[in-house]
């Protein structure tokens, strides 16, 4: 399997390549970033990690250079956490891994959420208590079925 990471489109004419018509594509506007955030929404709890990269490729797509990454547990602004919980509630998701960018002005930009997003390494690298949060939700049982 070949993994393709995010890369910038330097020339808009590249998008006219007829071969692109036969593939799935996702394009987004470039956002200057101070850092990225993986925010895990577990029930009504948000557990967030700041992700910084030392490499150019890692700054474009942090998944492409795990060795250049530094992790730090962070608290998001209350409004951002509330909006993430509301989104997951509206989507009827008890769990989601949301990716955000924090720009140099401190504004957060939502990229996506994934209902089966990876989190295991964040428990080890940043001390994120994801197993405890998941266990708490599971113990509450049907009350969390949305």
TrEMBL record:
The keyword Ligase applies. Pfam families: RimK. GO terms for molecular function: ligase activity. Keywords: Ligase. The keyword Signal does not apply. Residues 2-135 form the ATP-grasp fold RimK-type domain. This is Glutathione synthase/RimK-type ligase-like ATP-grasp enzyme.
